[in-house]
Amino acid sequence: MSKRIIMRVELRPQSYDRLNEFCDRTGMTKVAALSRLIDWFCRQSDSIQAIIQGLFPSAIESDIATLILESTKANKRSA
Question: Among candidates 1, 64, 2, which has minimal Cα distance to 39?
Fold first, then answer.
């Protein structure tokens, strides 16, 4: 059996409500939903993680997103 690490997560009330709605709609537990989300996030490239975290200035976010999408598309074609 794989080793598990248990963490606490702090959410704003609005986020908690949306998480509850998602879990109710999908029949998924909060632990399962958050585990999958964190696993997905950790598999993303550094640039995608940075844009998700809002680390780029808002004035260039759309340019960064376009560059990331173009790079992702080019990588898939060469694979």
Answer: 2
* Confidence band for 65, pLDDT divided at 50, 70 and 90: confident
Quote the distance between the C-alpha of residue 66 and its chain's center.
Answer: 18
The DSSP annotation for 7-76 comes to ------HHHHHHHHHHHHHHT--HHHHHHHHHHHHHHS-HHHHHHHTT-S-GGGHHHHHHHHHHHHHHHH
- pTM, to two decimals: 0.74
Q: How many domains does the chain have?
A: 2
Q: What is the pLDDT of residue 76?
A: 79
Both tokens of 71, joined, read 């790079």
Same domain, 17 and 37: yes
In a domain, 5, yes or no: no
